[in-house]
Design a protein that fits this description.
There is one protein chain. The protein is of the alpha+beta class. The protein is 19% helix and 24% strand. It contains four helices and eight strands, in the order E-E-H-E-E-H-E-H-H-E-E-E. The strands form two sheets. Strands 1-3-7-8 form a four-stranded antiparallel β-sheet. Strands 2-6-5-4 form a four-stranded mixed β-sheet, with helices on one face. A hairpin with an 8-residue loop joins strand 7 and strand 8. The longest helix has 9 residues. The two termini are 15 Å apart. This is RES domain-containing protein. It comes from Thalassospira xiamenensis.
Length: 172
């Protein structure tokens, strides 16, 4: 990705990386779209994480969105694989902008899954605390489920299709 957060406009409440710059996160999708919006029947959260997580989600012919999130009230939660609409509704009603969770599913390599399966650890992962999970799967990374599409600043959209003639679209 060529987007440098220091060269783009971003809001005062942008989520920050450890070095102080806005944290660039990624969203993977099978579909290309011009803006994030809620779909009827959706879980009411837009999920963002590492590039590896987003690429896993999008597949080889999907779309990769790089974004900065303008969030300030973050609820930490354990990844259960599926929370349902009530989890998002309660967090939003409590004044949170998003839910942050250690992603236990996307971004974990096939090699790591095979290793954990071979040593008998794979079936025990869901019972681990986040701290213990990171000891076993050190490449795991945090993801964010944002409730309000107005808090999402899209930096660029990249086609992951090998046939794409224009790989990336930079946005203002």
């Amino acid at each position: 990705m060529g987007a440098q957060p220091s060269t783009i406009a971003y809001k005062k409440n942008a989520l920050r990386a450890d070095h102080g710059e806005p944290l660039v996160l990624f969203h993977g999708s099978k579909e290309k779209f011009s803006s994030f919006s809620h779909r009827p029947g959706g879980d009411q959260g837009f999920h963002f994480g590492s590039e590896a997580q987003a690429r896993m989600r999008a597949g080889s012919s999907g779309w990769l969105y790089s974004v900065v999130l303008n969030v300030s009230r973050i609820k930490n939660a354990k990844d259960t694989g599926s929370w349902g609409k009530d989890t998002f509704r309660r967090a939003r009603a409590a004044g949170y902008d998003c839910i942050r969770y250690l992603n236990r599913y996307e971004g974990v390599t096939t090699e790591r899954i095979n290793e954990l399966s071979a040593n008998g650890t794979l079936s025990k992962l869901d019972s681990l605390s986040d701290k213990d999970f990171l000891r076993v799967v050190p490449e795991a990374d945090y993801s964010y489920a944002v409730f309000d599409p107005g808090l999402i600043h899209v930096l660029s959209v990249e086609s992951l299709s090998p046939e794409a003639s224009v790989a990336s679209t930079m946005l203002p």
